[in-house]
Specification:
The chain is an alpha+beta fold. The chain is built from three helices and twelve strands; from the N terminus they run αααββββββββββββ. Strands 3, 4, 5, 6, 7, 8, 9, 10, 11 and 12 form a ten-stranded mixed beta sheet that branches.
Length: 212
């Protein structure tokens, strides 16, 4: 393709080869490392050129958001996950109703390697806040959760606080008749509440970085 530089053609070829092998797209860091490019910003610049010239489409909200224009695929290794709203990774924030009743207009596509069971009973939430940064969950990331109503101590879960009508993402610890919701941030205190006030909505499966 004469409208592309050698590097841009190499990136386009690598994306196609990666899709052939995996049936999901590479991340910016995959491209950087495989092609020996100096930085992710250089990769991003060249991806912008490919997008402007209609060779690719991009969803910048997820790390594997590259799609080849005109490519047909059975996408056997990809599942679509509904993004049902946002969740606090800080102090709890109100949400409209419970998680099951949220708007399902947005979806993300992930490889089955990231979502065991081909996405059965799985949903996603966009993170708001910084209380889980030590668990590498940052503001703007998308967390993928499997819907379940029970968990083990120490697991990261989305919980609904019935009295407050709020939801939050924390590590769960049952301590007698109360629950400790523990942030993964050394600067923040845990939340303590009655066990009867806590409804587990889902267990963390994977995290999709807001950028990569």
């Amino acid at each position: 393709m004469r409208d592309l530089s050698r590097r841009q053609q190499a990136i386009l070829d690598y994306i196609a080869d990666f899709l052939d092998e995996n049936d999901y797209p590479p991340t910016i860091r995959d491209i950087q490392h495989e092609l020996g490019i100096s930085s992710t910003s250089v990769v991003d610049y060249n991806l912008k050129v490919l997008e402007e010239r209609n060779h690719i489409r991009r969803n910048r909200n997820i790390s594997r958001g590259i799609e080849l224009v005109g490519r047909a695929s059975n996408r056997r290794n990809v599942v679509a996950i509904p993004v049902v709203g946002q969740i606090a990774a800080g102090l709890p924030i109100p949400v409209p109703g419970d998680l099951e009743g949220s708007d399902l207009a947005e979806t993300i596509e992930l490889s089955t390697e990231m979502v065991p069971g081909r996405g059965d009973n799985v949903f996603a939430l966009r993170v708001k806040g910084h209380s889980m940064v030590d668990a590498l969950i940052n503001d703007g990331d998308i967390v993928v959760l499997r819907h379940q109503e029970t968990c083990e101590n120490g697991e990261t879960v989305a919980v609904w606080l019935r009295d407050q009508k709020e939801t939050t993402l924390k590590r769960f610890y049952l301590e007698g008749d109360r629950v400790r919701l523990q942030p993964a941030n050394v600067t923040m205190d845990p939340i303590y509440t009655d066990a009867a006030n806590v409804e587990i909505q889902g267990k963390l499966v994977s995290v999709v970085r807001s950028c990569d």
